[in-house]
Amino acid sequence: MSRATYDEALRRLLLHEGGYTNHPSDPGGPTNFGITIVDYRKYVKAGATAADVKAMHLDEARAIYRVKYWDAQRCDELPAGVDYAVFDYGVNSGIGRSGRVLRRCLKLVDNTSVVSDAVIAATAAADPKLLAAAICDERLRFLQSLRTWDVFGKGWGRRVAEVRACSLALAAGLPVTSQAAASPTAGKGVVPVRAAAQQGSAGAMIVAGAAAAQQAHASGVSAWTIAAIAAASLTFAVSSWVFWQWRRERQQSAVA
Fold it and tell me: Which of 18, 167, 187, 199 could form a disulfide with 85 if both were Cys (CB 3.0 to 4.6 A apart)?
């Protein structure tokens, strides 16, 4: 692609990112147009709340995508097809990963994610079709390794397949058909924070409590005792969830 086709790249990306989400398994937290609350606080409004993210204007999201992902990865200087593959990967999993993967696929050292002059030169000398395919293949392998694959995997897999097909067509100089409206692929493809597992354990506590109550009932324990077991399990689970939310907000505030 080129500078003039950034809007088309963003249009395709937004079909996948969708609108406002705040999925409990998404380490990005409150997200709108694919922009997390952390990025919104960094680029638009320090101390922004989930409500601010929900009310985000599309133009604000466009500006963040341009600066943080497209320009930061020097997509204007990358070959057609490779630019789109790198851009979409960076948005979904972070430019730290997409930059290193680009270097790795070019057989360059990947101890940094910077798209340097050497990287630009190497991409110019590479076969863009093979490079774009390698990036997308590595991206899919990485996503499949995440604990949240069971939650978001179907959408992620479809997204990578569509990006791969479009990137290869662009790299081959073929016309790209207009992409139909896609179902948003919620969830950032990044390594989940430990808190996500903690929230999942809260649900496990409720299930365990219900099982214990059921077992007590089968053993002939009184109804009052069974009710006490269930109430204690629910109280502990809710307390754990509240603590998880508090800790998550502190982590996001520290990053912002």
Answer: 167
CA-to-CA distance for 5 and 25, rounded, in angstroms? 33
Give the residue with greater pLDDT, 207 vs 108: 108
Q: Based on the structure, what is the number of domains in the chain?
A: 2
Q: Torsion over CA of 96, 135, 188 and 178, rounded to 10 degrees? A: 130
Global pTM reads 0.69
CA distance 87 to 68: 10
Domain containing 199: what range?
A: 195-255
Residues 6+ apart with CB under 8 A from 111: none
Which run of H or E residues covers position 32? strand 31-32
243 and 145 in a single domain? The answer is no
How far is residue 213's CA from residue 236's CA, in Å, rounded to a whole number? 15
The two tokens of residue 137 are 């293949």
Q: Does 154 or 240 have the greater pLDDT score?
A: 154
Residue 76 carries which DSSP code? G
Domain co-membership, 23 together with 121 = yes
